[in-house]
Amino acid sequence: QVQLVESGGGLVQAGGSLRLSCEASGRTYGPYIVGWFRQAPGKEREFVAACAWSGGRTTYADSVKGRFTMSRDNAKNMVYLQMNSLKPEDTAVYYCAADPGVGVTTTPRSYRYWGQGTQVTVSS
């Protein structure tokens, strides 16, 4: 019911910034939670940030708190992840995800819909 398309990844130097975008289509109304996850080589997929589509407080992983900001444009069905002060350890494939519901979760397995991912590489 929901399709997600991500963009905005790339190569940046440490300390730089990137803004990732995720465009949602299909059934994009009603109660949904939306989130960002990432997966580095040799590691499991990990939580980055999530919120309810309708609004409310955004939950961030401790590793990105204060550096990353999640936002959304409801009218355009867009979700963003502004990443500042990037570190080499932020290098990963970043995914946006969505799931019907109102309770924000940090567990990847709880999300039904996923984007294709976009590569973020931070050089030192």
Provide structural commentary.
Strands 2, 4, 5, 6, 9, 10 and 11 form a 7-stranded mixed β-sheet that branches. A 4-stranded antiparallel β-sheet has the order 1-3-8-7, with no helix packed on it. Helices cover 0% and strands 52% of the residues. The protein has 124 residues and is an all-beta fold. The chain contains no helices and 11 strands. It has strands spanning 2-7, 10-13, 18-26, 32-39, 46-52, 59-60, 68-73, 78-83, 92-100, 113-114, 118-123.
How do you describe this structure in short?
The chain is an all-beta fold and 124 residues long.
Mean pLDDT: 94
Question: Based on the structure, what is the oligomeric state of the protein chains?
Answer: single chain
CA radius of gyration:
13 Å
| Residue runs with pLDDT of under 50 for 5 or more positions | none
Helix/strand order, N-terminal first: EEEEEEEEEEE
Which percent bin holds the helix content? under 10%
Keyphrases for this structure?
124 residues; mainly beta; globular; 0% helix; 4-stranded antiparallel beta sheet; single chain; 7-stranded mixed beta sheet
Please outline the helices and strands.
Blueprint: E1 2-7, E2 10-13, E3 18-26, E4 32-39, E5 46-52, E6 59-60, E7 68-73, E8 78-83, E9 92-100, E10 113-114, E11 118-123
